[in-house]
Design brief:
Elements: H1 2-7, H2 11-34, H3 52-57, H4 61-92, H5 99-107, H6 114-125, H7 130-137, H8 154-179, H9 183-191, H10 196-207, H11 209-224, H12 228-233, H13 245-254, H14 258-285
Helix pairs in contact: 2-14, 4-8, 4-11, 5-8, 6-8, 8-11, 9-10, 11-14, 13-14
């Protein structure tokens, strides 16, 4: 009986492992296999082509644009979401009567569906949208532009939307980190004559590195895997000016180019694993143990 009881808890994990295997491990293995084939709806034979798909992608202007857009998007959103979240956390750390309400309001966008947020921001950035109406009302007609219709501004609209959605989530992580810092450290700095700025810069921020590591790494990985935001707001257009790897994979699968789409997915996975790990290790090395 003792031997049976030892394995009894494993029964409850069987279903979870089965679901994980069917919906994650199996598709990943199949994607890896298909990435080295010419498999498509037009050529259903699994003919092995080696690295031909990968070579083709890095010589294709649409993929190279999507690749650099993904990196640009990830870098900008990582910095902006982290910065905005940190500023909000520092401001709301002070005991105000409205702190609880403001924390809730700033966090609420994080629980909204990306598609719903995309529809909301379409009403802001379209030619007859809210932003242009405000600019016209202020007499700034020279600034009125087709924000989602120009190559130079379209990616910025998606970045703005993502920063608005996730800054509150970053704020919550930073608030947890700030509340974990012992008051004695700040009191000692005050006794030594440190100003508010010096306490923030030399005491609070270094001790906040664990929260900084979590936010920056998750923001960066999320940026590399962006999909719904671009699909919902711009669809990758105009042309493929706001195309990212995720939307290009989706379009390639929809068009029946399964081998090529799998190769893109493998590049995205490897890029995420490599850069995400490098960033986390670098940030973790800066953490102060106390």
């Amino acid at each position: 009986m003792t031997h049976l009881n030892k394995f009894y808890p494993l029964r409850f994990l069987v279903f979870a492992f089965a679901v994980f295997g069917v919906f994650f491990i199996f598709p990943t293995i199949m994607g890896f296999v298909l990435a080295f084939t010419q498999y498509s709806s037009y050529s259903p034979s699994l003919s092995f082509v080696g690295f031909k798909n990968f070579v083709f992608l890095f010589h294709h202007p649409q993929f190279t644009t999507a690749f650099w857009n993904t990196l640009e998007y990830s870098l900008f959103t990582t910095f902006l979401k982290t910065f905005c979240g940190l500023v909000l956390a520092l401001l709301l750390l002070k005991p105000l009567k409205t702190s609880s309400i403001l924390k809730t309001l700033f966090y609420m966008p994080a629980i909204l569906s990306p598609i719903i947020v995309a529809v909301m921001f379409q009403t802001v950035f379209r030619m007859d949208g809210l932003l242009n109406s405000v600019l016209k009302g202020l007499g700034l007609n020279l600034l009125v532009t087709d924000w989602m219709g120009l190559n130079s501004t379209v990616l910025g609209t998606v970045i703005t939307m993502d920063v608005w959605k996730w800054s509150g989530f970053n704020m919550a992580i930073f608030l947890a980190g700030l509340q974990a810092i012992p008051d004695s450290f700040l009191e000692a700095a005050s006794i030594d004559g440190a100003s508010s700025f010096q306490k923030t810069f030399y005491v609070t921020l270094p001790l906040l590195m664990p929260a900084m590591s979590i936010n920056m790494t998750s923001n960066f990985i999320g940026g590399l895997n962006v999909f719904e935001q671009v699909l919902g707001l711009t669809g990758g257009g105009p042309g493929y000016a706001s195309q990212v790897i995720g939307t290009l994979v989706y379009q390639s699968f929809s068009q029946g180019y399964y081998g090529r789409a799998s190769a893109m997915g493998m590049i995205q996975i490897l890029l995420t694993l490599f850069l995400g790990t490098m960033m986390y290790r670098f940030l973790s090395s800066k953490e102060i143990k106390y």
